[in-house]
Amino acid sequence: MLSGWEKAIFAFVLLGSLGATRITFTKMFKIIGRGTLPIDWSLVFKRIPTGIFAFLGKPLFKTRPLATIIHTGVAWGFILYMLVNFFDILYGLIAGFHLLPNSIVGDLYRLFVDVFSIVVLLGVVYFLVRRFVQNDPALRINENVLVNEKARGGVYRDSALVAFFIFFHVGFRFLGASFELAQAHGDAFQPAASLLAMAWSGLSPEVLILSEHISWWLAIGLILAFIPYFPTTKHAHLFMGPLNHMINDREMTAASFETIDFEDESLEQYGAALLEHLPQKDILDAYACIMCNRCQDACPAYITGKPLSPSALEVNKRYYIREHVSDLADGVESQDRLSEWMLTEDAIWACTSCGYCVEVCPVANEPMVDILRIRQDLVMMESRFPKEAVTTFKNLEVNGNPWGQSPQDREKWMENLKVPKMRDKGEAEYLYWVGCAGAYDARGQDASKAMVELLNKANVDYAVLGTEETCTGDSARRLGNEYLFQMMAQQNIDTFDNYKVKKIITQCPHCLNALKNDYASLGKHYEVIHHAEFLADLVKQGKLTPTKASNAKVSYHDSCYLGRHNDIYEAPRDVIKAIPGVRIEEFPRSGNEGLCCGAGGGRMWLEETLGDKTINVERMEDVKAVKPDEVATACPFCATMINDGIKAEELDMSTASKDIAQYLLDSIVE
Q: Over the stretch 279-324, which tens digit does the pLDDT of each residue have?
């Protein structure tokens, strides 16, 4: 199609585009390479199906179904155009070239291109209207959240620029096809382009050829101009998102940040203070981010008016990189602390580590883990943390529990109960890990008493540590005190080794997560079972048989550390369903879209003073919507927060929360 001089110009433009692309992409990967914990790039080749799955957009379908369907259509169409552009270039360079003419494969190719051209064009129009006409609130970030001043308007300009690029690139290609078909009198496998070609029926062959050439140059020229610019736009997520899925080798978000080796004297930094202190994968997150704000839709801190948005964290990261791209690529050390430009200290301590932002992110970003790493720096390097955390750390270090109560009081709840102890038995099949809440908190003690009675009824071979038990260190780790966590963990590990512990039952999801995931990062692996799973299995085996009927309407509150962090959703519900007559009605926000109670990430021990309301009061909106007779929990922290919320909102006290073990015990008649 192209003349000789056009081919020469194209070769010159192509070489220029490839050269500029090499520079921008090289800078991008140099910046990613500045981080710690090198990415294992070999995973890319091992996890190609994972990348394809991510590209297909399935993770997006968790929320915003209409926008998701349209976005997926645009994405598929745009990616398809990479292949289309290749064949269009061949069409321009090779006289008479057409892909597999007069064949079913070629005809299907042309049909797909024709259909997806319309899909992409309509999809882009939808997103332009949604962002710039409707000004969808979901695409905005609250004013009280720290956002790079250039990003506030820059995200909109970037979106407009890329949207118009896609629209005109696809549009001119579609026009070019119509001009070609006007010369060939249409094609049944290109119905849309053929329909448009009818509008050109009055034009001369010379005008049609000129118009086709102009359209070809504009379509191909736009893509050649855009490719070098691609890494600087948010639309780099088209390839960095699937790549992020492929290189992400973390199985559990709660256990995803690495253990610090305090014996390594070469380490000069604990946690992350600067951009280059983050792992390479976390820097790649900035390039993968869609800036869709899904992560803040159910972030408990954000929706209650606190100055934290996981989306803003990634947006700020991206814009900081954009502003310092040359220095970062050249290896110049950053001068700006993350807590100054990525998010404020109030935002850092507002995070409950609920994991929603990680769960919902379609491109495998992990803003929650960034926050936990920054906490490590603030605590261990800067000694800057909330005053309540000072008391918590002291209580953990001195008394072995965050309440600060005497270690000798750990067995008080056992009075008048038959509770076997490891120091008496020596060994047992199961260690029943009571936990600090189960030993010291009144509601937690009720759950512990119920568990002991149930274990005894089922003739389970178990024992407790009693006064030999000390806190797992979960709160210390989530609050950033990794050193204290490891000290407490090692104390427990030594005790486990002494009694040859292999299997552990616990009713606290935070203890479950620490013993199962955090201790595994220290090289110790145990079979840790949450009491919901254990009780559900005992009922299934017929070792526990609930017979006393209940007519109560029960709603179950999902614990973040049981659900999102450890993927246990059905077992607690199975326990409740085993009770005759019980009716379960789900909260509007439940399962992997459940709302945090507000106590995770060490927030149990910190005052909640920021925002429009407390997180547990926000959870009461779901309680009001369903109006259950009772709220079941499977976490002592959740039980406390739910009951406090019920009192704060002065709801009917018949709605008070109890642990699933208590519900099950009440239904078992001697």
A: 999 999 999 998 889 999 989 999 999 999 999 999 999 999 999 9
Q: In whole angstroms, what separates CA 159 from the centre of its chain?
A: 23
Partnered with residue 529 across adjacent β-strands are: 505
Domain that holds residue 480: 399-540
Q: What's the token pair of residue 267?
A: 């380490």
> Quick one: 96 and 164 in the same domain?
yes
Instruction: Give me the DSSP letters along 434-473.
Output: -HHHHHHSHHHHHHHHHHHHHHHHTT--EEB-GGG----S
Q: Is the C-alpha dihedral spanning 347, 350, 353, 357 positive or negative?
A: negative
* Whether the predicted pLDDT of 51 surpasses 80: no
Counted residue by residue, the chain has a size of: 670
In 3D space, the residue among 378, 15, 304, 289 whose CA is nearest the CA of residue 142 turns out to be 304
Q: Could you tell me which of 366, 340, 380 has the C-alpha nearest to residue 279? A: 366
Instruction: Please check whether residue 403 is in contact with residue 436, taking contact to mean a CB–CB distance below 8 angstroms.
Output: yes
In a domain? residue 250: no
Query: Residue 387 falls within a domain, yes or no?
Result: no
CA distance 448 to 414: 9
Q: H or E stretch including 120?
A: helix 104-128
What's the pLDDT at 60? Answer: 56
- Per the prediction, the chain carries an average pLDDT of 93
What pLDDT, on a 0 to 100 scale, did the predictor assign at position 55? 63
Whether the CB-CB separation of 305 and 611 falls below 8 Å is answered with yes
Split at pLDDT 50, 70, 90, the class of 57 is low
Beta bridge mates, 464? 421
Burial of 586 (0-12, 13-18, 19+ CB in 10 A): middle
CA atoms within 13 A on the CB side of 266: 0
Token pair of 175 as six digits: 């026009």
Alpha helices in 289-385 (DSSP H): 300-303, 310-323, 325-329, 338-341, 345-350, 356-360, 367-380
Residue 612 burial (10 A CB sphere; 0-12, 13-18, 19+):
exposed
Please state, in angstroms and as integers, the Cα–Cα distance from residue 543 to each residue in 164, 458, 634, following that order: 65, 5, 20
Integer Cα distance of 561 and 595 in angstroms: 12
pTM for the predicted model, two decimal places: 0.92
Count of domains observed in the chain: 4
Q: How far is CA 93 from CA 81, 184, 202, in A?
A: 18, 20, 28
533 and 562 both lie in a single domain:
no
Going by pLDDT thresholds of 50, 70 and 90, the confidence category of residue 137 is confident
Structure tokens of 341? 């430009």
| Burial of 618: CB neighbours in 10 Å, binned 0-12, 13-18, 19+ | buried
Residue 350 is part of a domain; what is its CATH number?
1.10.1060.10
Residue pair 374/339 in contact (Cβ under 8 Å)? The answer is yes
CA nearest neighbour of 24 among 322, 331, 247, 288: 322
Would 512 be classed as within a structural domain? yes
SS3 of 324, please?
A: coil
Picking from 216, 232, 248, the residue at the C-terminal end of a domain is 232
Residues 214, 161: contact at Cβ < 8 Å? Answer: no
Asked whether residue 206 falls in the same domain as residue 305, the answer is no
d(CA 644, CA 264): 44
Tokens representing 651 are: 């709801």
Let me know whether 207 and 104 are in one domain: yes
Q: What is the dihedral sign for C-alpha 480, 486, 488, 493?
A: positive
Distance of CA 259 to the CA centre of its chain: 21
Residue 365 to residues 289, 324, 513, Cα–Cα distance (Å): 7, 22, 21
Do residues 356 and 333 share a domain?
yes
In a domain? residue 194? yes
Q: With beta carbons less than 8 A apart as the criterion, state whether 445 and 342 touch.
A: no
